[in-house]
Amino acid sequence: MTGKTLAYVVGARPNYMKIAPIHAALRAEGTLVQSIVHTGQHYDPLLAETLFAELGLPEPEIQLAVGSGSHGEQTAAALVGTERALVELEPDLVVVAGDVNSTLAGALAAVKLGLPVCHVEAGLRSFDDSMPEEHNRRLTDHLSEVLLVHCRDAVDNLEREGIDAARIGFVGNTMIDTLLAHVDAARERAVWSAYGLQEKGYLLVTLHRPALVDNPGLLALALEALGEVGRELPVIFPMHPRTQARLPAAVPDSVLVTPSLPYGDFLSLEAGASAVVTDSGGVQEETTMLGVPCFTLRDNTERPVTIAEGTNTLLGLDPERVREIPGLLALGAGQQDRCPPLWDGRAGQRAAAAILGALGLRPVVGSVP
Length: 369
Ligand code: UD1
Prior knowledge:
Layout: E1 5-10, H1 13-29, E2 33-38, H2 49-54, E3 62-63, H3 71-89, E4 93-97, H4 101-112, E5 117-120, H5 132-143, E6 146-149, H6 152-160, E7 168-170, H7 174-189, H8 191-194, E8 203-206, H9 210-213, H10 216-230, E9 235-239, H11 241-245, E10 255-259, H12 263-272, E11 275-278, H13 281-290, E12 294-296, H14 305-308, E13 312-314, H15 325-330, H16 347-358
Parallel strand pairs: 1-2, 1-4, 2-3, 4-5, 5-6, 6-7, 8-9, 8-11, 9-10, 11-12, 12-13
Helix pairs in contact: 1-7, 1-16, 3-4, 4-5, 7-12
The chain binds uridine-diphosphate-N-acetylglucosamine (UD1).
Uridine-diphosphate-N-acetylglucosamine is lined by residues 12-14, 41-44, 47, 68, 74, 99-101, 132-133, 208, 240-242, 245.
């Protein structure tokens, strides 16, 4: 042990899959003491504790209780709480991931204490300023000293914004490491059969973004279109609490709604699906890795690599287009059989090496090839 310490600040479901492989690689390497601060942005056990245990992450050293609220309230509460936590932990480096409100709060709390920040999944841009995540990403990148990226367009975005190439490490996709570590067991468990579904015989749905689910008209149209598709291809919809809270009284019988699922159950359903309909960023990447056609109900994506090199089709924020999915599948949509570079299961190790390098403990690896 060097006496150097690292603190991760996380708060929402997609953060955990991104840090787990880095945490594991650094734990195995043994040089650093690692702590986790959970802001409590997500507080349902299914969006927090259950996932920590499944992904092999230890319980957070510090658990805050930020909870829900407006963006300003939630980000501010996470900022105040994280600052106190970092004062207590005195880390040498703070690691944040992705683009949720807790990511920005963690980065801001750190820099205001004079602590360097490492941003995992840096450089993504949707160029859509109506998304809270776009502000979180851009601001976090500009607060960070170490920017770990997972696709080439992220490097281009950062360089275009004047970020010094020496701060950027192209390490690959740590969330894909997590997927690869769990996918064989997930497939074997065949979770689809527990819901009476056949492998490659159903459509998996995830929708939770405010642009869609906070608009009652659009959510109703999406459910209606899914109901219609469901008469031909069974539809299963594990539902995020945000969506659940906005659900109209009547959901078509042909759409099977479940609560949010544990990571392994969801991955099993994703791997076994004929296709996926989503507005999630992570699911666009996971389906590319799994080779499962993905239809994204958004006008843009910060992950264009999933279209250029993966299985993603952007349908637009137009739920009516869900009706086209069986026809698009019959025409071979989303059949690409490629995978973006460095989505290879070793990104966590490259990220760990880059972190050690930034702390002066190892030469930096994973720089832009
Ligand atoms: C957040 C992220 C989003 C990410 C998503 C993954 C931001 C701006 N958004 O969105 O980028 O894709 O997480 O899930 O950070 N709720 C519960 N239980 C919980 C958490 C939330 O019931 O444990 C409900 C509450 O009604 C809350 C709503 O979900 O108001 C939204 O939660 P919030 O954390 O604000 O944003 P998400 O929609 O989860």
